[in-house]
Amino acid sequence: MKKVVAGSMVSALLALPSFGFELYNNDNTKLDVYASMRGYIGVGHNLSAPEGTGRPNAPTGYLMGLQNNSRFGINFSTGDFRAQVEYGWIENDTSAGWRLYYGAYKTSSGEFLFGRQNSPTTDPGFSSNWLNADTGSLGFGGVALALRRIQVAYKIGGLNIALLEDKAGTGVNTDVTQDGAYRANAQMPRIAVSYTAKDADGNLFLKVGASYVRVSGYGPYYSKYSGPDLHAYHAWFGYKPRFGNAYISFMANAGKNGDLYGEQSTTISTGAYTHGNINGNINENINGNINGNINSNIGYNATRIGAHLEFGYDFSKQFGMAIGGGYQLTTGGSNQYKTTGERDGGINSFAAFINLPYKVSQNLTLAPLVAYYSVAGDTDSKVRFGKENKQSSVIGAVRIKWDF
């Protein structure tokens, strides 16, 4: 039976399934299957929603569903070759599909991988906020937890270097603009580099990473943008030392146009399980705004700087606690101007949460969580996302996680 070291009650919340049915193990060839089913039930309240006449409870609603990162998969290895396929729900969609499919070959000089795998610069578990498909801290001091992309990667020790396809390359673009000029072409894959270190017990201890891609004026990233080439990049680090039954987790990130490839974001919470998007990278609207979907894009060239701090403690092998919070500042977007024509002061995003995971059995974990979110911008900014340009909410829910 396969077992992955989870390290602690709280750390195990976001880990890959730590159990698997071993189907075959003979002559240096192994085959096992695993699964992780994740559901939630709770209530959310939008603190910024105006009370409707005769509808005093309109801003409050119950939450219940299956997390859209539930999955099952197969691991296969023989000699120096290994492969993995995984099927399940995909975070930014409501339908199931292939999440992972890759093969890797290990040599004396390192491991070479090709296929669909997580981006090297995603967060492997520095935040335990499980809302928004385990990315409850994204846009509030954290970065993306899971972002699977087709890639060619080289790994040696804790170092991971990859070329990633965030959007399908289209080759020579023969579309033309309104003035008859040819659209620009996609010019390069994204480059991502990271280094991950674990402590003596195999627990996540440190990670640093950076990504960069040059985006053409009208390439596969922006469907409605025709202008100068853009530079999209971000860098971040996470540090998670342990002290007996306790740990401290800190991470910080900074970047520009990092929303283009999805590893940075500016989001709002209206009291739903998922966050709303106000990046505008594909002319997106705010999702779930109580006044309707308002087209309030931040635009391109936005800079995002954020940090997340979390404290966790295991009271026993069955029961733990995590308390954390984060902050992000978004400035400089192409639409971030006041109605007077001056630059606005940016968007301030803050979140705080407490998580109390309880391990019912070897396979079943319950995780009650209470979270508070607040996003605020200048009241006279052209980027609009709610009453007085503020969105805040409180969410209380229980996550039910079953692994084998």
Distance between the termini: 10 Å
Q: Would you identify the regions where 5 or more consecutive residues have pLDDT less than 50?
A: 1-6, 218-223, 280-296
Query: What is the average per-residue confidence, as pLDDT, rounded to a whole number?
Result: 83
Please count the helical segments. Answer: 1
Percent helix, as a range, is: under 10%
Largest sheet descriptor: 16 strands, antiparallel, barrel
What is the topology, as strand order, of the major beta sheet? 2-4-5-6-7-8-9-10-11-12-14-17-18-19-21-22
Task: Please tally the β strands and state the result.
Answer: 22
SSE run: EEEEEEEHEEEEEEEEEEEEEEE
**Proportion in β-strands:** over 45%
Can you give keywords for this protein?
disordered N terminus; 16-stranded antiparallel β-barrel; 404 residues; 1 helix; two-stranded antiparallel ribbon; mainly beta; 1% helix
Give a written overview of the molecule.
- The chain is mostly beta strands and 404 residues long.
- It has 1 helix and 22 strands.
- The strands form 2 sheets. Strands 2-4-5-6-7-8-9-10-11-12-14-17-18-19-21-22 form a 16-stranded antiparallel β-barrel. It has a two-stranded antiparallel ribbon with strand order 15-16.
- The protein is globular and about 70 Å long.
- The protein starts with 20 loop residues before the first strand and ends with a strand.
- The N terminus is likely disordered.
